[in-house]
Design a protein that fits this description.
Helices cover 33% and strands 32% of the residues. It is an alpha/beta fold. Belongs to the ABC transporter superfamily.
Amino acid sequence: MNVIEIKNLTKTYGKARGITDISFHVEEGEIFGFIGPNGAGKSTTIRTLLSLIYPTSGSAAIFGKDCIQFAPEIKREIGYLPSEVFYYDNMKVKDLLKYSASFYKKDCSKRIKELAEIMDLDLTKKIDDLSLGNKKKVGIVQGLLHEPKLIILDEPTSGLDPLMQQKFFELLEAENKKGATILFSSHILSEVQRLCNRVAIIKEGKIVTVEKISTLQENNYKKFKIETKSPLDPNHFNLSGVNNLAVSNNVTSFIFKGNINEVMKRIAEIEIANLWIEEPDLEEIFMHYYEKED
């Protein structure tokens, strides 16, 4: 079953760019990545999905129910962490979380304590006195305290130090094992690479591709680095599927997508001192997608 189903979703803001014809689905139990640079339309898509803003056209459904028609019902089963968190400054953390929990008609006090412990969050402090990172932790606990079936995260790690990011990822993996579906939006590719099964890449309000992370990394792309005795003519690797070609002194590097035998034939024609063939990381593949589309 698809927990999220987005079909031809469009949101226009006059002349400013919103999102155009966005379509993808997130399967039950999946950790799905939604990546693109800042301003690509990730937050607009998420806010439309949560019916915080309404689409110009197209539709979105969560748990098989229309996002606008069944918004209050759906929201009880969703944990949402916005990219920026704002709170009533005068409240204490525990009071704010207690207030949040009151919307879900179940006792969340034990879970709040557990989460605060994992995230190293002091419940007795006033929101006002918290650093940006600690405010983010409050948002994380607030999003997870009712053990939602769907967790939607918009740039969730900004403000968290590396140790806390690590704890947060472990927490998400544990929630996922318990059955939660996760939509993880980020411009930091290593995060998505680490956590997600599939990914949608968004550029300038449009989906460029939806792929399995494993497909992006393994099946299609290889990263070549070739060391030669003397500098190589870049045109030697003038093949379709060669991208990001760079020659620096005696080292030629590029990313290749396609039939690897074609490249090997070209390599066989030159005298090489050394050769490296690796899986490119998502960052490099991602840049390739962006360049290819321009």
